[in-house]
Amino acid sequence: MKTRYSVLVDIKQDIVKKSETEVARSSANLSSAMLSLESSQKALEDIVLPKSGTISDLLVSRTLLSSQREVIQNNQKQVESAKKQVELSKEKLKSDMIEHEKFKYLELEEIKRILKEQKILEAKELDEIAIITHNRK
How far apart are CA 85 and CA 31, in angstroms? Predict the structure, then answer.
């Protein structure tokens, strides 16, 4: 049964689906960022420091270590950003779902009201039919 809220319920349902997609996308971004962080930490662990050699070898290894640490810091920032994005998208999904439920409830109440009015009208018509048939006898 179509009510004045039916279109709004459909629109809110589409919004909820978009929000669910956003949550999934932001979760995938978080997973990707966490994998990047883990791989950069593993790369830092794999760096072999020279025990002896020229000063240029030591400087190169120090530069390599510092650049890898910067990569790790950037990846940590990306993970934090992705976590915030996941939280924000989950909050938006929650609010969108609440709005959708509100309009579904209003639609359900409208349907109940319409059905009640139809029952009352039907009862009145049956009473009239009963009175007419009773008066014919």
Answer: 12
